[in-house]
Design brief:
mainly alpha, 6 helices, globular
């Protein structure tokens, strides 16, 4: 019984990532430079995908936080 509870809680564990002020404002910086939001979002997605081997499961968390999109593709 205890094992199943521990396993369930491990699956629900929230992925925490380090966000710098620059990363928090990344999309706003791109938009302020005249880049369309969708183009900026696409650029962020491509860049994160290129580094998925380094980021591992953090990829999705970074994508959601950088693009400020709760429904970011997984």
């Amino acid at each position: 019984m205890w094992e199943s509870v521990d396993t369930a809680s491990a699956k629900r564990e929230v992925q925490e990532v380090v966000m710098t002020p620059f990363l928090q404002r990344y999309m706003a910086y791109m938009v302020s430079l005249g880049i369309n939001f969708e183009q900026a979002r696409g650029s962020a997605m491509r860049t994160l995908r290129k580094h998925v081997e380094l980021l591992g499961t953090s990829y999705e968390a970074y994508l959601q936080l950088i693009t400020h999109d709760e429904a970011a593709p997984r």
